[in-house]
Amino acid sequence: MMNLPESDSEDELPPGWEERVTGDGSVYYANHLTKNTQWTHPRTGKKKVVLGDLPYGWERCIDKSTGKVLYIDHENHRTTYTDPRLAFAVEEKEHINDFRQRFDASSTALHEQTQE
Fold this sequence. Notes:
Layout: E1 17-21, E2 27-31, E3 36-38, E4 48-49, E5 58-62, E6 69-73, E7 78-80, E8 90-91, H1 109-114
Antiparallel strand pairs: 1-2, 2-3, 4-8, 5-6, 6-7
């Protein structure tokens, strides 16, 4: 029997996994079942980063009792251990010129390369 995700989103994390962010904005994944971490998404194998500053009204602090990073939303008077920028994380490009190109069945690029 195949272990299929509960949703159709390949970006959704498997049960027991959590997405976290380092101080420099690199996204990593924590597996609470095995107590391991990794840089690549457990389903897609992609790396992600968060860009830019925290949203307006947010502050990054260290919880003195635990030493963990926490985020304070001063606008809505709440705190969380989850970086609010995670919702907008983007795939990290391996090369500066790295881009995705969809296959187009009408493209003649392959034919032009093979012709002499």
